[in-house]
Design brief:
mainly alpha
Length: 485
């Protein structure tokens, strides 16, 4: 018996991730579809000055979130699947459920943007077949891809993680090449002409420009919590925080460089007119047609790598929530290789459904990008608020009072930043989020019934009423045309 237990422990330890693997998970999660769409997405909203301010705000805000995840990983080492676990520990089971469900839904909707970008890239070669990634052929190809990845991940998390590490290295090369090429090709007069985002040159106009970029910056930084989600696989708990911060800083520099240097090769109007992935068009303007092929290969490799990481994370969150009895028990099942197959299947089904919906969207990529970002805001807000709550109460700081003030300040700034992001998202995407969040309560009810517990406490009923009101308002707005997809 002792030999069997020792063998099991040895197998579990062999599946643990060292620091380099955790960093690759963070980088692999963040560097996906978003970076290849940055030149056009930013040009649609602002010029050089607004972009610099936007990255400063996003960088500072997301760095505060990175520090929050680092702090929580150390102060609450018993909490696994960070984003979900922190919300539950701080604000109760129902809001914890919403955090888990929202993070999962955000990951699934984000994965749809990956398939849209892959097929839209192929559409540059076969426009009549794949178009902008919104044709029947595009959806069929994306469907084949998503179920292929489902099978790959089902064969073992560790194997998939190794593939992700290799893909992460491979996809960084085209992006770095793009940045270097644009640095040498930069035209000072073009850059100067793009400095202002247009007329009038007032602070209020600049604020609106910066605000318009916020959901884009959130989208490209999704995955900052990647190491935290996989905390149960880490060899050392302190590596979770290190991986989060190191991965973030490298990715921030990369994203800002792609955005800013693009303003030095094409006018803002030309950048706005590029087809996604707009990085390919910017590269073509400098080196010719081979630049499109070079970046297109990078897009496909990068997107497929990020898709792998995000599908793993989505399934992991459902699995851990079910293990904690906050979701139906069938989602808590895993194979001998520690793969939560039922959660993986449910995630793939939602991705499939959302992929089909893109056939009816006017701009599938932009819509799913912004919706994905909006869905992620509640989980991020609750995690930041939980860190602030620990500091205010002094919990876990009994022997570390010197760190308390500094970490409270960081958590406060992270909380403020996520509240600002909700404001920047606007009413439309808030209501669309309610449309997705509220029906998810069915899973919460199923879990409570399995346990023979009261469905909702008095406090939870208030939250449910607010959610239903948002759901009804969202449906009414869609029906009236006030909100469109």
């Amino acid at each position: 018996m002792a030999t069997t237990e020792a063998s099991t422990l040895a197998q579990q330890e062999a599946r643990k991730f060292p620091l380099p693997t955790l960093i690759s998970m963070v980088v692999g999660s963040m560097v996906g579809a978003g970076v290849f769409s940055l030149p056009r997405n930013f040009a649609l909203a602002t010029g050089v000055l607004g972009a610099l301010i936007a990255w400063l705000i996003a960088g500072a805000g997301m760095l505060m979130l990175a520090f929050v995840f680092q702090t929580l990983a150390v102060r609450k080492p018993e909490l696994d699947a960070g984003v979900y676990a922190y919300a539950k520990a701080g604000f109760g089971e129902y809001l914890g459920f919403f955090s888990a469900f929202g993070f999962w839904a955000s990951a699934c909707v984000g994965n749809v943007t990956y398939w849209v970008l892959v097929t839209s890239t192929l559409g540059k070669l076969w426009p009549g077949v794949f178009g902008a990634g919104d044709t029947v052929a595009a959806v069929l190809l994306g469907s084949v891809g998503l179920w292929t990845f489902c099978i790959l991940i089902a064969r073992g998390v560790q194997g998939a993680a190794v593939i992700n590490k290799v893909v992460t290295v491979a996809k960084i090369v085209p992006i770095l090449t793009f940045v270097v090429v644009l640095i040498f090709a930069l035209k000072a007069h073009v850059f100067a002409d793009n400095f202002w985002g247009g007329e009038p040159r007032r602070a209020s106009a600049l604020f609106d420009q910066v605000r318009a970029t916020m959901l884009t910056t959130v989208f490209v930084f999704l995955g900052i919590e990647g190491a935290s989600v996989y905390s149960r696989y880490a060899k050392r708990r302190q590596d979770v925080g290190k991986a989060t911060v190191l991965g973030f800083l490298g990715v921030l520099l990369l994203f800002a460089s792609v955005t800013i240097f693009s303003y030095g090769v094409l006018s803002r109007a030309e950048l706005e007119g590029l087809q996604q992935p707009s990085m390919a068009g910017a590269m073509e303007a400098v080196v010719g047609h081979w630049g499109v092929a070079f970046i297109s290969v990078g897009v496909i490799v990068s997107v497929l790598g990020a898709y792998l990481a995000w599908t793993m994370m989505a399934a992991e969150v459902l699995y851990v929530a079910a293990k904690d009895k906050d979701m139906p028990s069938f989602l808590a099942k895993a194979t001998a290789k520690d793969v939560p197959v039922p959660a993986l299947l449910i995630s793939s089904i939602l991705i499939q459904a959302a992929l089909i919906i893109t056939l009816f969207s006017a701009d599938a990529f932009t819509f799913t990008l912004k919706l994905c970002s909006a869905l992620s805001l509640v989980p991020y807000l609750l995690a930041a608020a939980y860190a602030l709550k620990l500091g205010v109460r002094g919990e876990t700081y009994e022997a570390a009072q010197r760190q308390r003030t500094r970490q409270m300040l960081v958590a406060g700034l992270a909380t403020f930043y996520t509240v600002f992001l909700l404001f920047a998202a606007g009413v439309a995407f808030l209501l669309l989020s309610f449309i997705i969040y509220t029906p998810g309560t069915i899973l919460f009810v199923m879990s409570r019934r399995e346990q023979g517990r009261r469905l909702f406490s008095s406090r939870e009923l208030i939250i449910l009423i607010v959610a239903i009101a948002g759901f009804v308002a969202g449906i009414a707005s869609l029906a009236s045309g006030a909100i469109s997809i």
